[in-house]
What does this fold into?
Amino acid sequence: MKKKNRISSKDVAREAGVSQATVSYVLNNVEHVKIRPETRQAVLDAVKKLNYCPSHIARGMKLNRSMSVGVITDRSVTNYNFMKTLEGIKDGLSRYNYTINLIFSKQEENFDAELMDYYNANRLDGFIFAFAMLEDRTHDVLRTNGVPYVIIDSYASGRGGHEVVTDHLSHLPELFALFKKKGAEKMAYVGPQVRHRADPRPLAFKEAVELYGQQDYGCHFCPFNDDQIRNMIQNLLRSPNRPEGIIAGTPRFGFHTLKTAAELGLKVPGDLLVASLGTSAFHGLCNPGMTAVELPLYDMGVTGADVLVGLMNEKHMEGIITLPSELVLRESL
Amino acid sequence: MKKKNRISSKDVAREAGVSQATVSYVLNNVEHVKIRPETRQAVLDAVKKLNYCPSHIARGMKLNRSMSVGVITDRSVTNYNFMKTLEGIKDGLSRYNYTINLIFSKQEENFDAELMDYYNANRLDGFIFAFAMLEDRTHDVLRTNGVPYVIIDSYASGRGGHEVVTDHLSHLPELFALFKKKGAEKMAYVGPQVRHRADPRPLAFKEAVELYGQQDYGCHFCPFNDDQIRNMIQNLLRSPNRPEGIIAGTPRFGFHTLKTAAELGLKVPGDLLVASLGTSAFHGLCNPGMTAVELPLYDMGVTGADVLVGLMNEKHMEGIITLPSELVLRESL
DNA sequence: TTGAAAGCGCTAACAC
DNA sequence: GTGTTAGCGCTTTCAA
It folds into this structure.
């Protein structure tokens, strides 16, 4: 199983009886260089005959661009948000012949340094951060080094830079109206603890609930850990003053609500109504199906790719792009 | 935002007052070249001072290896099996300083040709196929061209080549014993239609069920489509002779079983016992929790990477490596 | 122990 | 219209 010698443009040139430059001109359709049709054809024939396949590597080296970008998240790769977005990014990039040079790195100690090393070592052309919580200093490093990058997340970080986000929180009033219509008076929010920056979900919940004139509500937070989530929700549902409607800040909180309710003998949607913020592959599969405000993850990926490509080509790009979410009704509400 | 000129080994050489060759010797720890300690130190200092970061690209070009491999699946990227495995592949490869040059391509028309083009264009060093159904001719193309590759899947294809698989079907007898112990006499299998090759699941089910002396069982297949799955399972559970225990060929079939049972007023695990083959992020989150034979997906990825690296270094590698699955008990059985 | 120089495969400025 | 040539950043043979 020895290494084959791969065909180079020199081979094609020899075969076609032209120079290497001509091969390059033909294959790249260079604007201001006119090639005689028969020469062009000779090159094309040679390419086909030899089954020539230009080396991206060499090309990238010459042009000082690799046509590949890094994608980064601080979650598990198996996180649904990330995977779905990645799919969009991939499709978006491939339209411009860009490639993903995947990284899924947790935020390590010297993350910024590693980021730049990776960027340099692989001659990346840019970065997409999908559901990664960026520190201020990371922004600084990227900007200082003139690295094109785009952030994809649920909501804007407000730190400048280019971001693709969604308007899912604007569906809260609509969601509340639905809860009310279905008879839930006492509402509660359960969701993850705020992490690095102001999480707009609790505030949005408060505003929405007050808009509907309810005073008797609660916002409950806990770390993103199954046991603690279960615990918190059990306490909530066992309390004498338990809510009739629950909005979960993430799908996982929603699933735990469903599961806990069943264990306590509460019927959903009979005794309790539930809706969740965010997208999951399981919303239609769980029992009962989960009503949710779903994020346009795939589109966010595609759009992120578009923006990054624009940036890499030194075009001016809009700072924050907001894509519409959608309230999807299922059995839980 | 103009392109910075990146530091090259030439810059380091100049800074350290040595030649470019010496920089290379030092950084690569070349065996049979002795460098004076002070020279070495000078180089190292210059590297640190300039924050030099060698170009993988240029190195790959010179060595005719890119230190990167392609990873391929025929599923959606958002497939849990694939992503979890990918995580393992990534970690495995990075131990050898290999990089993933991700592709997730559906089996298109001229898949083989594209595969080789991609291989050549990006100077890949090898391929890993994770949950991709390979045609015979793809095997042929890869072998003819001397491309190192490894297949990761649930069960061996039996087509030769190097494969990393798991023994999950060997847990069926154990699973049946459990069903019997919990009181399920009538068993049934529900799962996806066989696709490109012999799916060992139905046969393994039959053998296992017969081992336990039950004659009255059924194997039910349908396309991997939510509506059809629901339909099939509804019919099964409504039949007068309905099974008391169901083994689902994939997690999705398991979730639909749970959901359908609930809708028909059947209690799990009271009226019906359920277990599924395969891994999912929702097994612990669904209601009730799903007992399942879980695949060592991450480890399969790591092992696949190990095998491929061996192959790329022209070592002899074992043909088929089987990793142990694990029966994880939850509430559904 | 170190350096000079060639060359991996490509592109592009310039020459003809 | 097409060819010559230099050079992207690296490794490695050969010479010193």
Summary: Residues 6, 8-10, 20-21, 23-25, 28, 30, 54-55, 57-63 of chain B lie near DNA strand D (CB under 10 Å from a C1'). Residues 168-294 of chain B form a domain with the Rossmann fold fold (CATH 3.40.50.2300).
